[in-house]
Amino acid sequence: MKTSDLITTANKNLLRNKVRTFLTILAIFVGSFTIILNSAINAGVNDFIDKQVSSIGGDGFIEVMPAAASEQVAAMMQSGEKVTEYNEKTGSMMSAVISDEDFEAMKKVDGVKNLEVFHVLTTEWMRLEGAEKKYNVSLEYFPASTMNVDLSAGRMTDDETETEYEIIINEDWLKPLGLGSAEDALNKTVEITAKQTLKCYTSSDCLAIVKAKIVGVQAPGVLTMDGDLHINRALDARLYELINEGIPEEQLATVFAVGDVDPAKIEDIRAAFKEIGSGYNFITVDDTVGMIRTFFDVILAVFNIFGIIALIAAAIGIINTLFMSVQERTREIGLMKALGMSRLKIFLSFSIEAISLGFWGSIFGIAASMIIGYSANTVLHAEGGFLSPFPTFNLVSFTPEVIIPIVIMIMLIAFIAGTAPALKAAKKDPIDALRYE
Amino acid sequence: MKTSNLKATPAGKKVAESFPVIEVSHLSKTYGKKSTAFKALDNINLKIFPGESVAIIGKSGSGKSTLMHLMALLDKPTSGTIKVLGINANKLKGKKLNRLRNKYFGFVFQQFFMNANDSVLENVLLPLKIGKISRFKRKKLALKALDIVDLENKAKNKATNLSGGQKQRVCIARAIVNNPKIIFADEPTGNLDSGTGKKIIDLLFGLNKKGTTLIIVTHDEDLAALCDRQIRIVDGEIVKESKQKAGYIRRTAIREGMKEDR
Ligand SMILES: Nc1ncnc2c1ncn2[C@@H]1O[C@H](COP(=O)(O)OP(=O)(O)O)[C@@H](O)[C@H]1O
Ligand SMILES: [Mg+2]
Question: Which of A106, B64, B133, B257 is the most exposed place for a label (fewest CB within 10 A)?
Fold first, then answer.
């Protein structure tokens, strides 16, 4: 028999006893539905976390600070002590800075792709060009290459340009700035004021205005609620220059650095940084969001256990169904063997029946979980819904990478369940099967 | 045995004088082991030549079906050898054995053995499906076979909805669909009344006349008498082999008689 004939015959045989087949598929369906929906939610959640993560920096994004600073903070956080012992080697948290020498040394560590000084920008207010109302604003610059901001309109900032000043606002700013939709905001100019430190000692007129263009609007998210707006390198440099105008270079201290490293080498880099100068630490995005991920993983793992239990029950159903089928079709099997069908083909024909049961069970599982998943997503995103503040968070994600491995797994389970009955069929003696009485 | 010099018969049938299609020597079959052992066949020797019609006759339980199953390579003998189409069947295994049965043998059973839920056409083309014949070709051949048994118009019917005689005709169509060299028929009329039986007999001998070797297992003396040769079995042993030259004449007479019946 040709493979195509084996498959059509197997499916036809399944239709012979519709009720039994239906019930078996139903059992598989319950398991596959649970697992597929679960995995789709898992993928949706992770997808969203990934988007959030990359909006504060991708996998390779690091924030570097002197060990003194991070260790002192950690000591205070962990032990709750308000007074900590002075460390001769690292110095105090307040005085700890990144020296130029150490900065260069860190740049040379294997796996470090980019390291930049992080500027603390003392800005005063921001307003739409020509508008009256001013708003408090806080800005920060990270290399655009380390980030992947979840945008609802526009594009990412350009760090190559030296003359164009660019900013990305978030959706919360649309209304205050008097802008309608995210699209309306694009290419509008805003005025930002830098507080010029030195000038401000002597004069109250010490704010310098810089004009910047809105190139993108960031979608709301859970991890970006601090409200700092992202700007490009040129604007960062310009603001820093204005803020520190007149201050001698050597008096400007670096307290933070941000960079992009090879994610695979993070632990080596961490060790290397500890050895530089009086030691440096960094935090990655994973350090920050790892907790959130673990939380979701645990919940979904529990649901997956239910799904797997359902699949085990379904596998027993398949074994039972096929043994009944082999029993009923003893004579037919004998006839086919007499007519020259090989043991292997007999085995395959029953195996294919088992695999088909798994296949149909998972197809219905996919269909149902898609319908329910997408409906739930729509409902939760509706006005006032639980997810309405996060338009880019899709509750479920049904990508082939999510679905195909599950379908294959279920078909494999079905195949394994079908082996015993299929072997029994393959071993049937045509003479016994064809003997009358 | 002097079967090797059979001549062309009055009915125009050519019986080759060449080597036998089936050659059985010192064949024994024992069922069960030790205390429950039962010798169903004991030292059977026979040759069947191309184009012959042979009846294996004997009482119920005498070992006819056992012999047929062994000759059709559905079962393995306890001792002795079977040569089919010149090939020593003891050495045939797996794929080759299945292919031989699928391409060269046709089977008709007393109990029909049809897949009740399939259509008549599906039942007839089963051997071709197993033999990997293309969809188009097997349908064509199956319809041709159904035409021969005069059931072409029932092709789409469900097999269960047929009468006994029609069922057996479908089985004959299934047996001839692969254009076999040898047809094995085990009590082909055993489940039919004599009227319908005649039509089946007529069909089988019609095929035999066209050159297919026919081996009929039966306990019916009248049916056996229609064959070229009768191999009589009693308690697993051949007691008498007889040539019945009159077989052709009687067969023709029956066929003529049936025409009048219609
Ligand atoms: N599988 C078997 N196990 C034990 N005895 C068997 C088996 N098959 C057949 N027999 C016995 O062998 C003898 C011959 O059987 P069979 O060839 O079917 O007879 P027939 O077809 O002439 O009626 C019978 O006595 C039967 O009971
Ligand atoms: Mg019998």
Answer: B257
